[in-house]
Write a structure and sequence with these properties.
Chains A, B: Pfam families: RecR_C, RecR_HhH, RecR_ZnF, Toprim_4. Two copies of one chain form a homodimer. Chain A is 43% helix and 13% strand. With 199 residues, chain A is α/β, with parallel strands linked by helices. Chain A has a domain at 79-169: 3-Layer(aba) Sandwich (Dna Topoisomerase Vi A Subunit, Chain: A, domain 2). The first copy, chain A, has a four-stranded parallel β-sheet with strand order 4-3-5-6. The model of chain A has no long low-confidence stretch (mean pLDDT 89). The structure holds zinc ion (ZN) (2 copies). One zinc ion binds next to loops of chain B.
């Protein structure tokens, strides 16, 4: 269609990226060819290396090219606090938004029997073992506020209590800067019911 | 920040793609690692090959990995019609949207003295030569409707007339399916002034 089979192949391959349809893949390919050949070649080489070398941290299961990730291997992080998230995306969000200095455990999913995601797939045997070692004092459950995330949170809370460890959840409520009008009803009801003294 | 320097490097490298900021680069990197390693490796290899091998067609200047592109090399295309576009993006748009079966000439830019884009940079010597060869009967000027595109169109029209060749422009007007309310004033005024019999 544009006279270059290789260009058509590049446009097609770019569509494996999330949120990239035909139009933006085309725009990307043209821009790479027209203005960014050097940076594009660098991207291709970093991508190859990352996809071949990045595995999972043996302690927290987040993405890591070393057996133990930079967070788990950092002696400055508080090993008494363990925050459980569904994926490295949430880990990164918490790292960027908060001053949290504890450790993480990444489920790489959520409980979802229909998708074959049970406790074994989420590495909960390893988490149980970690809790049994006695170092963790508080399990901060930061699964997503979806039906499956809530079910997973419930399961994790039971696991913590069985091990005699304090479990906590992120607070729900109206987002900062969010207008009440646009907050979903469930969140609003929850925030209203859990209202705090304004003194 | 996420415990993997290589992952941070991948996120950073993805930002050379147009329209990709920090957040979407992160989402792309995670998705590639979590679900698309095979397709990601394929993308990296196609990208490397494309950026190394794709040059420009010696006849129309569009992207091509062969000396002459698939359109110029196609004996079924009408060599009496030559459509001039600013970039391969517009060439692809016209190929996809219309039944045009003529040939193209790609400027790879537009007249813009301040950016050092003059007739030489747009390959107009080659275009002049092509017009002098006598095969082209109509020069279809399809530059973008911007100030620089219009100036370029004007220059091209003079070039055609100097060579005794008919020059035409794409029709301006209200886009099909566009609501009048949302059409910009210049286009609306132009469409109104150029109104045609409704018989
Ligand atoms: Zn780790
Ligand atoms: Zn060509």
């Amino acid at each position: 269609m544009n006279g270059s089979p290789l260009l058509a192949e590049l446009v097609d391959a770019l569509r494996c990226l999330p949120g990239v349809g035909q139009k933006s893949a085309q725009r990307m390919a043209y821009q790479l060819l027209q203005r960014e050949r050097g940076r594009g070649l660098k991207l291709a080489s970093v991508m190859t290396e990352a996809l071949q070398r990045i595995g999972h941290c043996s302690q927290c299961r987040t993405f890591s090219e070393t057996p133990v990730c930079g967070i788990c291997g950092n002696p400055g992080r508080d090993r008494h606090l363990l925050c459980v998230v569904e994926s490295p995306v949430e880990l990164a969000a918490i790292e960027q938004a908060t001053g949290y200095r504890g450790c993480y455990f990444v489920l790489l999913g959520r409980l979802s029997p229909l998708d074959g995601m049970g406790p074994a797939e989420l590495g909960l045997d390893r988490l149980t073992q970690r809790l049994a070692e006695g170092e963790v004092e508080e399990l901060i459950i930061a699964t997503n506020p979806t039906v499956e995330g809530e079910a997973t949170a419930h399961y994790l809370a039971q696991l913590a209590r069985a091990g005699g460890i304090r479990a906590s959840r992120l607070a729900h409520g109206v987002p900062l800067g969010g207008e009440l009008e646009f907050v979903d009803r469930g969140t609003l009801a929850h925030a209203f019911g859990g209202r705090q003294s304004a003194d």
